[in-house]
């Protein structure tokens, strides 16, 4: 059975004795007066998580949640109400509340809605990952623990966890659409602690996506994650303190795309730009990056963590070119911002759950590959930093200023990668950094599937990616000059 072909309408409506006619009446209750758009979002989610520490099961949990949110939009104003009671009475109260928040006006009457199905199936899965026996998940984590410890006797502790989710959504809109989706999600995390004398270092790695649970066992992938976490922790035992100053920085492929996501991606979301508070506001058609830079958000990549058949407003996701050869092409839109800006939908309306209003959010965001050989990019640096992986960071959307901590980095000396360093931070301005990119490699890679993005208190799964790139004269914070 392909769970992508389960009918969310039957599961979410029939079991609560709701009909298509009920949806039409509820939407009609919201519309009228200045309210020109309304929708109802249904959700049913099963999630579980298991973790081990020091070789024993530390925690295990399983949660089931369901609910619905009703929205009314009047111009720039949104009224939103939600309930975990999916009954006609509760939904009627939510509809009245959403209407009262957005604006008062005359009743509009029912709206005819017709069912549709997603045009694609990006994540065909035969068994929901939440239905895999917990004993199988514990066994997997025990293998992860063993693989990490086998890397080196200096690995003194391993923390491993796996989280899975199975979500059904259904959206009914005042534009006459009823569409649903079934969304599986899995994520495996490994954290290793290495110790030598009093020197203690920690590192993490993992992966996941919208695929079969068994993907973690393919080609000993779980062991690859474990060994990589151990390798990074052991590497930092040998690392010296990072230098500080202005220098050329080479970002490695894959996960370093998190810097692109945070420092630039959020500034390209339509709500910030419509309000004029983004560093990219009013710059469509302008050169905002070096000509070698093309930045894309693509929610259609099969099996990826950030991919979706439809967004949380029922709009098919797409491939949106944000910056083409250094020129700003457009923003990421949800329904409201696309309507107010008079631009096409991009399928980027996302929400954490039925208890949250949708907003423009990224899916899988990355810079496209260039034509430079990564080895040549490094050879072109006399003194600099090679940043392979990042931990935490902060960014100010209004001006693009950011600070990011490198969890794995090396010195570049006379065109060669030499000593590992720790404590390096990258300090800069997102739009300015784009203009300083002097080379883009031919080795585009996406992250392994662990990204989660936060915005206005909401968290959603995302993907990032980057080829090897060189940024000239970036400020590096360290502990020695």
Structural commentary:
By secondary structure, the chain is α+β, with helices and mostly antiparallel strands. The protein has two domains: 236 residues, PmbA/TldD fold (2-Layer Sandwich); 233 residues, no CATH class. The protein contains ten helices and 25 strands. The strands form five sheets. Strands 1, 2, 3, 4, 5, 6 and 7 form a seven-stranded mixed β-sheet that branches. A six-stranded mixed β-sheet has the order 12-11-10-15-24-21. Strands 9-16-17-19-25 form a five-stranded mixed beta barrel. Strand 22 and strand 23 form a beta hairpin. Helix 2 runs parallel beside helix 3 and helix 4 runs parallel beside helix 5. The N and C termini lie far apart (61 Å). The N terminus is likely disordered.
Q: For this structure, what is the CATH class of the largest domain?
A: Alpha Beta
Rg result: 24 Å
CATH topology of the largest domain: PmbA/TldD fold
Report the strand count. 25
Tally the helices: 10
Report the mean per-residue pLDDT as an integer: 92
Content of β-strand: 35-45%
Descriptive key words:
25 strands; 40% strand; six-stranded mixed β-sheet; alpha+beta; PmbA/TldD fold; 2 domains; seven-stranded mixed β-sheet; 10 helices; disordered N terminus; 481 residues
Please outline what is shown here:
The protein has 481 residues and is α+β, with helices and mostly antiparallel strands. 21% of the residues lie in helices and 40% in strands.
């Amino acid at each position: 059975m392909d769970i992508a072909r389960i009918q969310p309408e039957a599961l979410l409506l029939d079991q609560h004795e709701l009909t298509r006619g009920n949806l039409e009446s509820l939407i009609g209750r919201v519309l009228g007066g200045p309210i020109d758009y309304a929708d109802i979002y249904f959700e049913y989610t099963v999630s579980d998580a298991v973790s081990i520490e020091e070789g024993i099961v530390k925690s295990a949990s399983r949660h089931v949640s369901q609910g619905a949110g009703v929205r009314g939009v009047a111009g720039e104003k949104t009224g939103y109400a939600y309930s975990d009671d999916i009954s006609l009475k509760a939904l009627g109260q939510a509809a009245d509340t959403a209407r009262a928040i957005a604006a008062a006006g005359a009743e509009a009457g029912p709206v005819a809605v017709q069912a549709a199905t997603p045009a694609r199936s990006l994540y065909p899965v035969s068994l929901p990952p939440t239905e895999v026996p917990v004993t199988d998940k514990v066994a997997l984590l025990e293998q992860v623990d063993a693989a990490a410890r086998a890397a080196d006797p200096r690995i003194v502790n391993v923390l491993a966890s796996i989280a899975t989710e199975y979500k059904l959504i259904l959206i009914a809109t005042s534009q006459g659409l009823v569409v649903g989706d079934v969304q599986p999600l899995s994520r495996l995390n490994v954290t290793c602690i290495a110790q030598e004398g009093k020197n203690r270092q920690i590192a993490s790695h993992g992966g996941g996506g919208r695929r079969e649970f068994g993907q973690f066992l393919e080609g000993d992938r779980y062991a690859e994650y474990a060994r990589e976490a151990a390798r990074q922790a052991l590497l930092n035992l040998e690392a010296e303190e990072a230098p500080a100053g202005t220098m050329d920085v080479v970002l490695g492929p894959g996960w370093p795309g998190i810097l692109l996501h945070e420092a630039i991606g959020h500034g390209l979301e339509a709500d910030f730009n419509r309000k004029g508070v983004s560093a990219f506001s009013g710059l469509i058609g302008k050169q905002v990056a070096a000509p070698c830079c093309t930045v894309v958000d693509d929610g259609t990549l099969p099996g990826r963590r950030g991919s979706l058949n439809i967004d949380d407003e029922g709009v098919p996701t797409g491939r949106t070119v944000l910056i083409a050869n250094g020129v700003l092409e457009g923003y990421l839109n949800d329904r409201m911002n696309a309507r107010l800006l008079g631009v096409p939908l991009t399928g980027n309306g996302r929400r954490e759950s039925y208890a949250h209003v949708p907003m423009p959010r990224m899916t899988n965001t990355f810079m496209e590959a260039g034509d430079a050989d990564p080895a040549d990019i490094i050879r072109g640096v006399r003194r600099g930093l090679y940043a392979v992986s990042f931990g935490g960071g902060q960014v100010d959307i209004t001006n693009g200023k950011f600070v990011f901590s490198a969890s794995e980095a090396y010195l570049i000396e006379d065109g060669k990668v030499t000593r590992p360093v720790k404590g390096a931070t990258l300090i800069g301005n997102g739009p300015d950094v784009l203009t300083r990119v002097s080379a883009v490699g031919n080795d585009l890679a996406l992250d392994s599937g662990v990204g989660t993005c936060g915005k206005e208190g909401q968290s959603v799964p995302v993907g990032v990616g980057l080829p090897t790139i060189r940024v000239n004269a970036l400020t590096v914070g360290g502990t020695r000059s």
